[in-house]
Amino acid sequence: MFTPLLATLITLQIAFGTFDMVFHHEATERLAWRPSQRRELLLHALRNLIYGGFFLCLAWLQPQGFFALALIAVLLIEVAITLWDFVEEDRTRKLPETERVLHTLLALNYGAILVLLLPGLADWASRPAGLLLTGHGLWSWFLSLASLGVTLFGLRDLFAARRVARLRETDPLDLVNPAETPRHILVTGGTGFIGRRLVAALVAAGHDVTVLTRDPKKAADLPTPLRIVTRLEQINSDTPLDAVVNLAGEPIANGLWTKAKKRKIVASRVGTTRRLVDWLADRKERPGVLVNASAVGWYGLRGDETLTENDTARVCFTQEVCVRWEQEARKAERLGLRVVRLRIGLVLGREGGLLASMLTPFEFGLGGRLGHGQQWMSWIMRDDLVRLIVHALDSEDVEGAVNATAPHPVRNADFTRALGRALGRPALAALPAWLLRLGAGDFARELLLGGQRVVPAKAEASGFVFRYPTLQPALNDVVGAAAPAAAKPACPVRKVIQQGG
What's the CA gap between 435 and 300, in Å, rounded? Predict the structure, then answer.
């Protein structure tokens, strides 16, 4: 029964399934961190556990009689689970085209496997009941390894299905007071990790929101009512516009900094901001405020220095990008706009950003410090960042550079330990600095091994109150390990701040 053709088909099934789990379920869709996918996770767990038992049985056993009938029944149950999974996926999420194609290939391949297997299993079912030990050399060990892999993912998905029930996301209206006088606010980068949450909060508060995006499909699931444009020129010059939030920018932490990547990083920030300010200059009616994203990379690599908005910069790639980015934004001051330049740190959330890419390896116990682990990480919870953006929009006395980081930055070693505690996993692994530099160059030197110890002096002086000032409660909330550590603060009293930066 065990023919070269069957071995080939099973190998293809393992390869297709591994790619689907790693690329789609983990890297792209991140199903283990989406509360809406609890049932899908359960179905994946059952299917993976079935595959684990099936591969192990093929590797070392020849089931006969009742045991062969039981195996046939389990294989048919897998078909029913797969069909149910198809329905559940279509009901709860929009599948990428690559995932749809791969699912079709998996289904066809599995059907071919059943066609080859069932006659042999039917013959074994006619024999006296028993489990005979057998073996197929290296092939048995390959199947055993595949069994171990899918079983681990199956158990993880069972755990994740239980965990997602604890994951919570506050009502967007909890981040901003309802608008007494609705304003028209333009948001660029409104389909990104930060922008989506900001748009949801502004819409919930009753503001008139316009989102500028290059890909309208990405904006299809944004909350309504809102307006979607793909070019600034689609906004009539006579249309009143009260505020602009510019969050547009190529992600910097999702790949190596090749020359092409660096050009995209610069163009998406500097070029987009320049075009935005030029467009504002041509308008008959201009908004009162521009809140423009920047990053703590503006300060360069500063070791253990504690940095406020009054500190100077030290040259590196991210510093050069941020300086040029902020220079373009400051040109809007000549047009009479109040300009706030938010120097944003590592934004924490399970939906995106650097932390999202860390969750899976840490969840499997493979997380740990980077290099010596003494580099500083200046961080902020995404909801606190959204609240700070709204605070900057509302506060006439907030302008210039504003550090968008929590009050208590931490070292990388402390961050990894805190994440391990939140997930209930050890965080003992460590990546040597030389290996990171060799593999990732400037990306590793500046983002992974460098860092800044930034504090939000101006934000706090203006009366802004962080809901997550310390790291452990923030990470606990992200991964659903515990209830939030801090209750919602009362509306902060605003104070006059020093104009610096």
Answer: 22
